[in-house]
Amino acid sequence: MGAGAMGCFNSLKAAISGYDVVLYDIDELMLAQVAHRHQESAAFLVSSGYCAAGDIPSALLRVSLVADLAEATLNADLVSESVSERLGVKREVHRTLDRVCPPSTILTSNTSFLCLSDFEDVVERGDRIAALHSYMASPLIDIVGGVRTSAATLDILKRYALSMNTVPLVLKKEYPGYILNAMLGPVLSTSMYLLVAENASCTEVDRAWMRAHSAPIGPLGILDLIGISLIYDSWLDREDEGLMPGLRPQVLELLQPYVERDELGMRSGCGFYRYPDPVYQQPNFLEAERERDDLYKPLQLALLGSALVVAASEVAEPAVIDQAWRVGMALQTGPFEILEKMGVVEFRRAFSEHVESSRFDSERARSALDYLDQYAASTQHARRAEVPR
Questions:
Q1: What is the C-alpha to C-alpha distance for residues 16 and 360, in angstroms, rounded to an integer?
Q2: CA-CA distances (angstroms) from residue 196 to 34, 71, 200, 202, 229?
Q3: Could you say which DSSP state residue 242 is in?
Q4: 101: left (phi over 0), alpha (psi -120 to 50) or beta
Q5: Which residues are CB-neighbours of 170 under 8 A, at least 6 positions away?
Q6: Can you tell me whether residue 78 is helix, strand or coil?
Q7: CA 156 to chain centre
Q8: Which residues are bridge partners to 265 per DSSP?
Q9: Is the sign of the CA dihedral 22, 28, 34, 37 positive or negative?
Q10: Which residues pair with 135 in a beta bridge?
Q11: DSSP summary character for residue 267
């Protein structure tokens, strides 16, 4: 449900994996653009090695486009919802799906920023609803059940993710942004803060990040990949400013002109960069003078602080958090591995200064530092246990 970028991407991925797919959207103009979006998705999936070019024609034959919801859901085993990140829209959509779908249908939401608990109460089939969140450029899939979701439903969704050659990550409990987005979100927010408050350029911010991580793309490039309108919508619906107090109005002011000009990122051909062939993909991009490598430090502290907050919430263990980051970002090192290399003492000093400069929410910072003490004690104990007697 939803024939935007994510809906089209997920429909093609499922079809490549052998599933019969019905793609529905309330807007027939969106359905008219599906062929183009499928072409873009196919090019990415082939270039990334997910499938062969020869797999695409047969997969497309397994996708039907339907403008009537009752017809689209008539024989549905699983519904994957990818509509606007607006809470009111999500609630109305799932209330309708619960009414029209067969009783056995599993309802899932691909929501990136909202929580399942924000709208699961509108459905009666509480045992058959879950968050099933995929990423455009990563094999990671987050699976989160609600308070009524059955173990059988979660097992089906895990096997469904495995059948598509993806990496399922079943969270212990609900958490805003799951694991990857809960860490990536603050990094992206900090990158926008650096544009607004530090007068940095997109290339300076992304170059600092890409050099430090040997990464193929930086935070502003990732925002273009996600879609600026999606980011803008998510900030509109936030009840607080998250990990950086006072940032919300600045972010909205930064992004609104892009939305008004329809410069929404990679798919519109223009956002923070121009596409195709953005400047950060040029061979000499990282060879520029190291004029603003100091911009990496706040990005690094946003990542590590957020990883500690996630761990403190008991959503997942540090090893799983590292795995989510490595798989989700296609990088070699996870945040706890970075923390080990940096050292607890140095991190605590730098992070405390980061918090004092109002770049990280003080309450969440306390949670991070409390967990840091536990983590440092446990890792020290583990090292002692490894020493031969």
A1: 42
A2: 36, 48, 8, 11, 18
A3: T
A4: beta
A5: 143, 144, 154, 158
A6: strand
A7: 22
A8: 270
A9: negative
A10: 138
A11: G
Assess whether pLDDT exceeds 60 at residue 324: yes
Most distant CA pair in the chain, distance: 72
Three-state secondary-structure class, residue 182 = helix
Question: Whole-angstrom Cα distance, residue 220 to residue 228?
Answer: 10
- C-alpha pair distances (Å), 280 with each of 158, 194, 216, 275, 300: 36, 18, 8, 11, 20
Rg of the chain on CA atoms, in Å: 21
- Phi and psi based region of residue 18 (left: phi greater than 0; alpha: psi -120 to 50; beta: remaining): left
Burial of 222 (0-12, 13-18, 19+ CB in 10 A): buried
Q: What is the pLDDT of residues 199-249, one digit of tens each?
A: 999 999 999 999 999 999 999 999 998 899 989 988 887 766 556 778 899
389 pLDDT band, cuts 50/70/90, is: low
* DSSP-assigned letter for residue 219: H
For 371-382, letters b (16+ CB in 10 Å) and e give bbeebbeeeeee
Q: How high is the mean pLDDT of the chain? A: 93
Residue 133: strand pairing partners: 142
The whole-model pTM stands at 0.84
The domain 5-170: what is its CATH number? 3.40.50.720
Instruction: Put residue 364 in one of left, alpha, beta given phi > 0 → left and psi -120 to 50 → alpha.
Output: alpha
Among candidates 222, 8, 263, 219, which has minimal Cα distance to 110? 8
Render pLDDT for 60-104 as a digit per residue (tens, 0 to 9): 999 999 999 999 999 999 999 999 889 999 999 999 999 999 999
Both structure tokens of 45: 């999936």
What mean pLDDT comes out for the span 262-280? Answer: 94
Taking Cα atoms as reference points, which of 107, 102, 62 lies closest to residue 80? 107
Tokens coding 241: 């400013």
Distance between start and end Cα atoms, the chain: 61
